[in-house]
Amino acid sequence: MAKTFRLKGGQIDRKTPLNFSFNGKGLSGFAGDTLASALLANGTHLVGRSFKYHRPRGILSAGIEEPNALMTIGNGADADPNTRATVTELYDGLVAKSQNHIGPLGFDLMAVNDRLSNFLTAGFYYKTFMWPAAFWEKVYEPIIRHAAGLGALSGEDDPSRYDKGYLHCDVLVIGGGATGLMAALTAGRAGLKVILADEDFRLGGRLNAENDVIADQKGSDWAKAIGAELNAMPNVRVMTRTTVYGAYDHGIYGALERVGEHKSDQSGTRQILWRVYSKRAVLAAGSIERPIAFQDNDRPGIMLAGAVRQYANRFAVAAGENISIFTNNNDGWRTAHDLTAHGVNIAAIIDTRQNPLDGSGLTAPKNCRIITGAGIASTTGRLRVNSLTTTTGETIKTDAIAVSGGWSPTVHLTCHQRGRPAWRDDIAAFVPSGDLPQGMVVAGAANGDVMLSQCIASGHDAAKTLARDFGKSVPKMALPKVNDADFAPSFAIEACWHIPPKKGRAWVDFQNDVTTKDIILAEKEGFTAVEHLKRYTTLGMATDQGKTANIPGLAVMAEVTGKSIPEVGTTIFRPPYSPVPISAFVGRATGKNYMPTRLTPSHQWAKDRGAVFIEVGLWYRAQWYPEKGETHWLESVNREVIATRSAVGICDVSTLGKIDIKGRDAGEFINRVYANGFAKLPVGKTRYGLMLREDGFVMDDGTTARLADNHYVMTTTTANAVGVYRHLDFCRQAIWPDLDVAIISTTDQFAQFAVAGPHSRKLLSRLVDDGFDLSNEAFPFMAAAELTVCGGVPARLFRISFSGELAYELAVPAGYGNSLAETLMTAGEDLGVTPYGLEALNVMRIEKGHPTAAELTGQISAHHLGMERMLSKTKDFIGATLSKRPEMTRPDGYRLVGLKTIDPDAMLTAGAHFLDRGAATARENDLGWMTSVAWSPIVGSSIGLGFVKDGHNRFGDVIRATDFVRGTDIEVEIVHPHFVDPEGKRLHD
Amino acid sequence: MTKYRLTHDHALGGFDAKADGAHLTEQTGFAIIAVTMANGGKRGFNSAMKKIFGTPAPEANQMVIAGKTRIIASALDQVFVVEKTDPETLEAKLVKGLGKHATVTNQSDGWVMLEYAGQRVHEGMERISMNDTSIEAFPIGGVMRASIEHVNGIICREKAKKGEGDRFLFLTQRSSAASFVHGIIDTVPFIED
Amino acid sequence: MIINHPLLGPRDASEFYYIGDASMIMRPDAGPDDHSAETMAAFDAYQHHRDNPAGLHRELWYHEQGDRSWLIVTRDTVTHEITKVEMARDVKLKGGL
Question: Which of A210, A418, A975, B61 is deepest in the core (most CB within 10 A)?
Answer without folding.
Answer: A210
